[in-house]
TrEMBL record:
Residues 1-21 are annotated as: Disordered. The chain crosses the membrane at residues 45-71, 109-129, 150-169, 181-199. One of its GO terms (molecular function) is oxidoreductase activity. The keyword Cytoplasm does not apply. This is Oxidoreductase molybdopterin binding domain-containing protein. Residues 301-434 form the Oxidoreductase molybdopterin-binding domain.
């Protein structure tokens, strides 16, 4: 059959001898039916990828919202990086302190699954790219809604994945703060995702129930299949296997940053931050070094004092005085928004609720504003909720794994709180202000 739109001999067709397959049409424009000739494309191939993304992207959205809630942004302005969120913060709740590995799990899933989904996302976009060039661009009100949701979906997905990947590599280069861009981008993307899912999910399920993976649903036209496909070089099952293999490779080379052992050494795609500290009690990951935020050895020297404020007034304590107080221990990890985590480290120091009692809150301590001596970088100040202060495992840590903290790990004193994001475990603490936040 010849071309139905332009006719044989049109400048947008090739002569029969050029194709070797009869009077087949191969368009020169992306909007031409014969431009996209891969035999792999088809509604079944796209439906399989779409259902994988439906589960994966929903998980990413939920864990992303949980990560945002873990910062307790509704507690104090110092924690809130998206002050104009309005109704988008409707779901926020007091982040719990247990289980102590909660943030390690939720953010580890968010980052690791996000990286592993990259091949699936790219394959899905490749599978539907002919739809972006269909003419006329709008045929009806329903079609217009589908097209708008598709553009927002594609643009939003690319924006979220690109900004997220740049952030976890600690090489974020977009203008403005990562937090509001990623947060608002996620809501725009997910709104388009819901609209597109509502339009396409019934068809995807119907297509997958229709028979073999290689074919289309009985009696239903496959609008994604090429009208004049090229000779196949890979089957659709092979393409799905290749996509899955790419996801598995990315999983292996990223998941290890949440664990110790051999997997950590092959985690090439998640951030390494500063050089590994090496063996010993302080030999676990550091991203924010003292030098990077302007903290010097003099800042942590003999003149360092911790100021504790509350109804009892201001109390200044040296490190020696803190060490003379009752010491408590807790085994807790550090988990960061970039997706890496340490195993449980053995921390020792003064409980925050004991310092609250010293400040004038002996019974039910309130939240606390924590200030660091660091001179640059985000979260120089951070607020903790009352439930975090009251947890007996929440410490002003002075030692780790049986030795004094190193300067890069926050010497002379740092916060460690169960289930809190790493940036709220403030290092180089100089002031604690206990008050209702």
């Amino acid at each position: 059959m010849g071309d139905r739109r332009f006719g044989k001999g049109s400048p947008f067709s090739l002569p029969d001898s050029a194709t070797g397959r009869g009077p087949a049409f191969t368009g020169r424009l992306p909007s031409a039916p014969g431009f996209w000739r891969s035999p792999v494309r088809g509604v079944r191939f796209t439906a399989v990828l779409g259902l994988i993304l439906l589960a994966g992207l929903t998980l990413l959205f939920v864990t992303g919202l949980l990560s945002y809630a873990a910062y307790n942004p509704d507690l104090a302005p110092v924690n809130d990086k998206t002050p104009g969120k309005g109704l988008l913060g409707f779901y926020l709740f007091a982040w719990p302190t247990g289980p102590h590995w909660l943030y390690r799990l939720t953010q580890g899933l968010h980052v690791t699954v996000g990286i592993a989904l990259v091949p699936v996302l790219l394959a899905k976009l490749w599978s539907v790219i002919p739809k972006l060039f269909v003419l006329p661009p709008v045929r009806s009100a329903g079609h217009a809604l589908e097209r708008v949701s598709l553009l927002l979906l594609v643009g939003g997905a690319l924006f979220e994945f690109i900004t997220g990947l740049l952030n976890i590599q600690l090489e974020y280069v977009f203008p403005g703060s990562f937090y509001p861009l990623h947060f608002y981008g996620a809501w725009v993307f997910f709104a388009a995702f819901l609209a597109h899912t509502g339009l396409k999910l019934p068809r995807a399920v119907r297509v997958l129930r229709g028979g073999r993976l290689e074919g289309s649903a009985p009696g239903e036209a496959d609008e994604l299949a090429a009208p004049d496909p090229a000779l196949p070089t890979i089957s659709r099952r092979g393409a799905l296997a290749m996509t899955g293999g790419g996801s598995l490779l990315l999983l292996i080379t990223s998941a290890g940053r949440s664990f110790d052992g051999p997997l950590r050494q092959v985690a090439l795609l998640t951030p390494h931050g500063a050089a590994e500290p090496g063996p010993g009690p302080n030999g676990f990951q550091i991203n924010k070094t003292a030098a990077a935020v302007g903290v010097t050895a003099a800042d942590a020297g003999r003149d360092w004092r911790l100021t504790v404020s509350g109804p009892a007034g201001k109390i200044r304590l040296s490190r020696e005085q803190l060490l003379a107080m009752d010491q408590h221990s807790a085994a807790l990890p550090i988990a960061c928004v970039e997706g890496w985590a340490t195993s449980d480290q053995w921390w020792r120091g003064v409980r925050l609720r004991d310092l609250a009692a010293l400040a004038g809150y002996p019974d039910r301590p309130p939240g606390v504003l924590v200030e660091s001596v660091q001179r640059s970088g985000a979260f120089r100040k951070a607020a903790l909720r009352d439930n975090q202060v009251r947890d007996p495992r929440a410490l002003l840590a002075l030692q780790v794994n049986g030795e004094n903290l190193s300067l890069d790990h926050g010497y002379p004193a740092r916060i460690i709180v169960p289930a809190a994001p790493g940036v709220l475990n403030t290092k180089w603490v100089t002031r604690l202000t206990f008050e209702a936040l």
